[in-house]
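Database export, one record per block. Field names are fixed; values are copied verbatim from the stored entry.
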Amino acid sequence: MYAYNNLDIDLKQLVPTAENPQNTLVHLTTGTMIPLEHQITASDLDCSDFLWKKHQNNLDARPHDLPRVTFEQLLELHPKTIPPDGLHRRKRFNAWKYLSDLVEFGPPYFQKFKKNVGDPEVVEAIPLVKTTQVPMRTLDISPNTPGTNATALEAFFKGAGVGDPTIIASVHDPKNLVMLVSGDLLTVQHLHSLRASRAEESTSWGRMQFIVLVMGLFHLKMACADSMWRIFIHNKAAQTDPNNLMAHVSQIRPKETRKIETKLGFRRMHECIQHVGIVSRLEVWRIAAATKMLNVTTLDDFAKLEPDWELLQEMANMIVMWNGTSAKFSRMRTRKSGERDKQFENMILHEEYFLLYEEILHGLNHGDIGHVETCFMPWIYIFAGCGKHKYAAEM
């Protein structure tokens, strides 16, 4: 697989002159080759012509040959299993996350249950194999158009020794093999445009039919963090609630509130989501303990009662059932204004979205690609709802 991205370097030591009025910012392209592991062979990639027959850019393709992917198909990639307790997969993950946070960040008593927590259920994990890579020469190209992306890719392919032998004699023809190319969303969009513009070329190399685009999932994680910022911080209407996210962030990062409000950085927002989420989930534990037991007002009071693991599991399941189903939540929001608890509704959304972020994060960090795919549909709707329509469409 070929992965590449832009690299911008500000050479501050450069001094523009009348003879050389250059900008100090240099735009480059870096790339790397990633050998495919997991017992993949060349025969597994021998399908370029088959894919081209079903590609929307193929002018000779018949309408019924073109694939149609529906929402139902995306939802059924990994069918849900609902046990007798009624907790479907997402709620089971949420219950695990509540238990994990209590054990790791709660009072010291709960640390005795570390072995009990374990890992959440696996949907479809990738076998762990150490990934190797072959860095390629950095190119003095700014990949900001379909044309410059084509130039960059052709340079990387040439460096790898593949290409059209009728143009460059020293390269090998990939023939019917496909090549995986990974990049961020903008790279994927440029390559979509590039392949559409070359659809009428007579050779497979000319129309680049052998490229299979792979969305970079780290960039997807960045998009998830950005959508949380758009919903809970950038949207000023969200800050009228006394329990708004910025009120919580100001407690843990009082010197960075201005930065977080105006200039989003992925790492900063990522940590805010995780840290505020942990504190919020511990507060939910405190409320659950106070609701279930007498004379309990803090988590330390709860720990002094020395609850066993079975009780903690029962309470975690009770917590995740508080929010109910999407239909139940929709009915809550359709009540008359005087009958609604809007702060409670906002906190339900806050908890659900932050837990969804933790879920896709866990899938990415642990190689559980099936779990990542089960998160696609809710994130598609979130992206569309906060204005990230290109990400929603690409997913």
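Remark 1: The first helix runs from residue 48 to 53.
Remark 2: Residues 89-126+218-394 form one domain.
End of record.
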